[in-house]
Amino acid sequence: MKHVLHIFRLAVFCLTLALCVPARADDAAALAQIQAALDKADYEQAARLLKPLTDSGNAEALYVMGRLILEGKGVKKNATRAAEFFRLAAEKGDISAMNSWGTALVSGSGVPRNYREAARWFRKAAEQGLAMAQYNLGYLYAQGRGVTRDENAAVDWYTRAANQGLASAQYSLGWIYLNSTGENQSDTKAAHWFEKAAEQDHAKAQNNLAFMYAEGRGYAQDPARAVHWYTRAAEQGMASAQYNLGFMYEQGRGVAQDYTQAVDWYRKAAEQNEPAAQYSLGLMYDQGTGVPRNLTEANRWYHLAAKNGDPDARDVVRSQSGKAKAPSAAPPKDAKSGKAPKKSPPRKNTARQTSPPKQ
C-alpha cells in the first residue's frame, strides 16, 4: 500500500513544555519567541531562533526544526535532514518526535523503511499517551507490519486514541467493528464510532455512517439520515459518497426522486474515476434519464468504467456492436461481492481499512 505522510500546518505547533523534557529558563524564553514567530508564519525567523537551541541539543527545538525542514518552511526542504532531527529529538525523549520518526520509518521518507523500528518508537510515544502514536501503533497491528497482525491489539490502541477524540482512530475502530469476522464484530459499536468521527467531518466515517442508516445496521433504518450523511461526505469531495448520494436521488430513497441531482452527483464521482459512478452515468445517458439521451456520451462513460474495473461496464463493452446494450437500471455495487443486484443499497467505502501513519 502506498503510504502518504499527513502533516499538519506548522502554525498550529504546540510547544507546551510539559510535553517534553524540562527546559532551562532561557530555553523557555527562546521557545516562546519561536512560538510567536510560528504564529505569525514567520518561518525564517523561527528557524533562526531555533538554531542555537538545536545546537545545544534541546529536544523540543530539534523536533520543531525537523518539521520546518520536512515542509520546507523557512529552510530548504530535505526529508533526510528532517528525519535526522526527528531521530535526535526522539532519542532525547520528545514524544511528538518519536511519532514523527516512526512515521518517517514507515513511509521511507528520508530513511529506509523499517516497520519494526517504527513500531518500537510508536509504542514509546503511545505508552506516554500521545493519541496519534496510539493510532499509528494500532495501524501497524491491524496491517501486521513490524508486529504480528493482532486485531485485538489494534482495537486496544485505536480505542485509546479514539477516547482522546482522534477522528482517524474513531473511524478505524468503527471499520474493524463493522468488518471483523471474529469476536470484534459489532454493528452497534461500529455505528457509534463512525458517528463520533463523522461529527468531526471525517468524510469516510460520514459515508460509512450513512451506509449504516441506509442498511439499518447499528441503527433503525433511516434513509433520510443516510442522505444527510452522504451529503456531508459528498460535499467534501468523497467520490464513493457522491456515487451513493446519486443513487439515493435516482431511487428516491430518503429524498424526493430527482434524476437531475442523480446525474450531477454521479458526474462528480465519475470525474474522480469512481467506476460505479462512471457506469451509472453511462446508463443515464443511454436511457436519457436526467439528461438528453446521448449514446456517444454513454459509450464514453461505459468504456471509462470498464477500464477502471467495473464488471457491469465490462459486460456492456463486450456486448457492443456499434451500440451499447445496457441493463435497465443503475444499481450500486455490492462492497464485498462486486455483484450488481438490482436496486441493492449503496455500498460503504471499503477501499482502505485505515489511513497510513500520520505525523
Cα-atom radius of gyration: 24 Å
Oligomerization state of this entry?
single chain
Approximate shape? elongated
CATH topology of the domain at 245-353: Serine Threonine Protein Phosphatase 5, Tetratricopeptide repeat
Please report the number of helical segments: 17
Terminal Cα span? 18 Å
Low-pLDDT residue spans? 1-22, 324-345, 348-353
Which superfamily, in CATH terms, is the homologous superfamily of the domain at 245-353? Tetratricopeptide repeat domain
pLDDT averaged over residues: 87
Describe the structure.
By secondary structure, the chain is an all-alpha fold. It is 60% helix and 0% strand. The protein is elongated. The chain has helices at 25-39, 43-55, 59-71, 79-91, 95-107, 115-126, 131-143, 151-162, 167-179, 187-198, 203-215, 223-234, 239-251, 259-270, 275-287, 295-307, 311-319.
